[in-house]
Design goal:
Helix content is 38%, strand content 16%. It has an 8-stranded mixed β-sheet with strand order 1-2-4-3-5-6-7-8, with helices on both faces. Helix 8 links the parallel strand 7 and strand 8. The relative contact order is 0.15.
């Protein structure tokens, strides 16, 4: 069957072959020691980010959180005074990923949007299980709203965003702030997130059986991240279960070959029902994790440009 949903972008295939040829393949996280998995993922991230030029004003910060200090990296756009800020959570299944591996994509987002980014190095599982990462994201948004002027940003124009596990944290944090009656956030950037704990959806059955993000891996991720199975029904872990009314507008993206495709469609439908503006873009022929592949895949570059435009339109052009 050669329909649009089964077509694979040739540049994605080429990128996979290139990484394999250089030995840049992450071991199976359900089998290998986590230290090996993390090191391999960071090596892949370094390769994908090769050639990325730092912004004129980017710096590392250590900010106070509810579970100790939180390392963060602040990227300020060139020649923009008091820009809006995107508080961003990286992907990695809640147990891997690092600030340097997301440098390249966040620099591009900042350059193209004119919006600053704060990359949050939230604490990882299993050393720090749910809800530590969630708590830290909520705290970083509140800190930006309270003390953003000292960071050189406009604390009245804030967005939250993330990819994969990071999109889960971003959405859950936005719900927590809405629940508390806080209006700090004006926008959400949600990139192929896991918004539910469902690993049996049609897209999981279709695209979660081979290499990459598999059903087996996702089940293991939830077991590793959560302390108890019953937390799968906690909206802080599965934010699609929350009441979504009153959230800020969102921009959702996902690849047509992503096992989490249905999660994005289901979230878009729930947000729409709740009266939240939420365009969803599905990029053909691309699988999970593509946003950092701009060096190798044109679709990834286009997606970053689309995300930057959405953030800019929400936080800059709206003024």
């Amino acid at each position: 069957m050669n329909d649009a949903t089964s077509w694979t972008d040739p540049e994605l295939i080429a990128a996979g072959k290139l990484l394999q040829s250089r030995g840049l393949v992450a071991p199976d996280r359900t089998q290998a020691p986590l230290s090996e998995v993390r090191a391999a993922v960071d090596r892949i991230g370094a390769f994908l980010g090769e050639g990325s030029v730092p912004l004129g004003r980017e710096r590392d910060l250590t900010l106070p959180g509810p579970h100790g200090q939180v390392p963060c990296r602040l990227y300020l756009p060139d020649a923009v005074e008091r820009p809006p800020l995107l508080i961003y959570a990286h992907g990695g299944g809640f147990m891997q990923g690092s600030l340097p591996s997301w440098d390249a994509v966040l620099r591009e987002l900042v350059r193209q949007s004119g919006v600053a980014a704060l990359s949050v190095d939230y604490k990882l599982a299993p050393e720090h299980r749910f809800p530590v990462a969630f708590d830290e994201m909520v705290a970083m948004i509140r800190l930006a709203a309270r003390e953003g002027a000292g960071l050189g940003i406009d604390p009245t124009r804030l967005a939250v965003g993330g990819d994969s596990a990071g999109a889960n944290l971003a959405l859950a944090a936005a719900v927590a702030l809405r629940n508390a009656g806080e209006r700090a956030l004006g926008f959400m950037l949600l990139i192929y997130g896991c918004y539910s704990t469902d690993t049996e959806s049609a897209s999981w059955q279709r695209f979660g059986r081979g290499a990459g993000l598999s059903q087996t891996q996702m089940r293991w991720i939830w077991e590793t991240y959560l302390e108890r199975p019953e937390q799968q029904s906690d909206w802080r872990a599965a934010p699609i279960l929350a009441d979504l009314a009153g959230l800020p507008p969102a921009h959702l993206i996902v690849g047509s070959l992503d096992p989490l495709l249905d999660d994005s469609h289901h979230l878009a439908a729930r947000l729409k029902e709740s009266g939240v503006p939420c365009p969803l873009t599905v990029y053909d022929g691309i699988n999970h994790g593509f946003i950092r592949y701009g060096r190798l895949i044109a679709t990834a570059r286009r997606a970053v440009g689309d995300c930057a435009a959405a953030v800019r339109n929400a936080l800059v052009s709206a003024r």
